[in-house]
Amino acid sequence: MRRDNQSSVSEFILLGLPIWTENQGIYYTLFLVMYLITVLGNLLIILLIRLDSCLHIPMYFFLSHLAFTDISFSSVTTPKMLINMQTQSQSISYAGCISQVCFFLFFGGFDSFLLTSMAYDRYVAICHPLHYTTIMSQNICFLLVTVSCVLSCTGTLLHTLLLVRLSFCGDNTLPHFFCDLSTLLKLSSSDTTVNKLVILIVGTVVLTLPFICILVSYGHIGGTILRVPSTKGICKALSTCGSHLSVVSLYYGAIIGLYFFPSSNNSNDKDVIVSLLYTLVTPMLNPFIYSLRNRDMKGALGNILSRGKFHHYEHHFSY
């Protein structure tokens, strides 16, 4: 069956953010700077982990994948939003909209599973330190990332296949700055019961279960610390877990606020603003959290900079 028979809509209109037209220039500059910080900051994390052999351990293996996922996750929605703000064009093609939904769901799910893998890594490191190198072997790390990717891909494929079956006739206006799945379903003239059921099931697997696993991991970590109460032990646990807990709180806090405390049908502004929080703000804050709160990352940055200075002086004196 041709897509033309399935949908009479060739494009959607994105209403964007609930901001006054005269303030568009200020917000455009702000969001552009935030996006550039997100990309450059997370690229710096990947670069440091690649260059510093001291960071070639499971925790930073997962962190490098998280940094890449954050760049991708933010890049799915932000560039299109910025282009629309700059050109005053609000349209997005049908194919572009479906693609945006697909990649948004994939990287969002992948992010969630990676945060869970990082929590498990911290649990093993603190609760079973003697067996850490055995449990968190290179093969296990690769397996966790592969399984995370496959699970996220499966959920995304289900959503996408069900979405392209729907018909969109009449209203094609999305009160959002990107093609959000739940907002798209409200526009469809087809029966979306199966879609909503799959959202519930996949949402449980991709968001709820990982969040419970993270809480259980940190529950065990807290219990281990309390059983052997020492200032040194608590400080060490906080230094290794503080960064991850901050990111988890930001990511899941925004999602819980959006999906568990939905706004009224009359107002969509809160949903749009909260979506902006976890698509742009959280990925931007990750590099700051992991750089400022992590001694190893600061040390790696210092080593790279000092190495650069040394090479500069060596080059200078060679003349």
Short overview:
The protein is mainly α and 319 residues long. 77% of the residues lie in helices and 3% in strands.
Shape: globular
Secondary-structure-derived class: mainly alpha
Count every beta strand, where a strand is a DSSP E run of 2 or more residues.
Answer: 3
Low-confidence stretches: 1-7, 312-319
Straight-line distance between termini: 72 Å
| Element-by-element helix/strand order | HEHHEHHHEHHHHH
Helix content: over 70%
Biggest sheet: strand arrangement: 2-1-3
Indicate the radius of gyration in whole angstroms.
Answer: 22 Å
Sequence-ordered SSE layout with sheet pairings:
Elements: H1 3-6, E1 11-14, H2 24-51, H3 58-87, E2 91-93, H4 94-127, H5 132-135, H6 138-164, E3 173-174, H7 181-187, H8 193-227, H9 231-259, H10 269-292, H11 295-317
Parallel strand pairs: 1-3
Antiparallel strand pairs: 1-2
Helix pairs in contact: 2-3, 2-10, 2-11, 3-4, 3-10, 4-6, 4-8, 4-9, 6-8, 8-9, 9-10
